[in-house]
Amino acid sequence: MRIAVYPGSFDPIHNGHLDIIQRCRPIFDAVVVAVLRNDEKRPLFSVRERVEMIDELLQDYPDCRVESFSGLLVDFVREAEAGVVVRGLRAVSDFEYEFQMALMNRRLDDQIETVFMAAKEEFSYVSSRLVKEVFFLGGNLEGLVPKPILRRLGDRAARSTDDD
Ligand code: PNS
């Protein structure tokens, strides 16, 4: 079994992420989307919400599943019995950080390989950070974010208004 782990914060997942997942499917037997549990960052969506959202989007893909993880990525990859970490590259500006992570992960476990995939051009400028910013400023995100996620953003916005 060739299993790939596709890790990230996914706060929230967008079409650029989904494109990478789709590109992994013909290459690997299984893809594990791994959502980082990170107490330092203040995410918009809880880990449980992000896992739920991704799980909903992966319903039609029996070869893909979502899990959350904390601690070292390489430990999670070993536990998942995977040998590959997949990361998407949108532009050269992503490269330096990604290269550092890949080399650090290799140093931690040289049995685990990082594979970079070029994101689809039409998503090369899309990030979760910009998705959140544009959403909360009322911009149109159609085509950039899956519809169920747009709905969740709407629910989240309504919740923030209630909290105020
Ligand atoms: O989507 P992101 O936030 O760019 O994803 C970053 C992620 C989750 C891949 C990265 O922060 C990570 O792997 N964190 C786990 C901690 C770890 O293993 N650190 C050492 C290796 S760089």
Walk me through this protein's architecture.
It is a single chain. The relative contact order is 0.19. Strands 3-2-1-4-5 form a five-stranded parallel sheet, sandwiched between helices. The radius of gyration is 16 Å and the shape is globular. It has a single domain (3-163), classed as HUPs (Rossmann fold, 3-Layer(aba) Sandwich), CATH 3.40.50. Strand 4, helix 4 and strand 5 (113-118) form a beta-alpha-beta unit. Helices cover 43% and strands 19% of the residues. It has 164 residues and is an alpha/beta fold. The protein binds 4'-phosphopantetheine.
What key attributes describe this structure?
164 residues; alpha/beta; 5-stranded parallel beta sheet; 6 helices; globular; binds 4'-phosphopantetheine
Topology:
Blueprint: E1 3-8, H1 15-24, E2 30-36, H2 47-57, E3 64-69, H3 73-79, E4 84-89, H4 92-108, E5 113-118, H5 128-136, H6 147-163
Parallel strand pairs: 1-2, 1-4, 2-3, 4-5
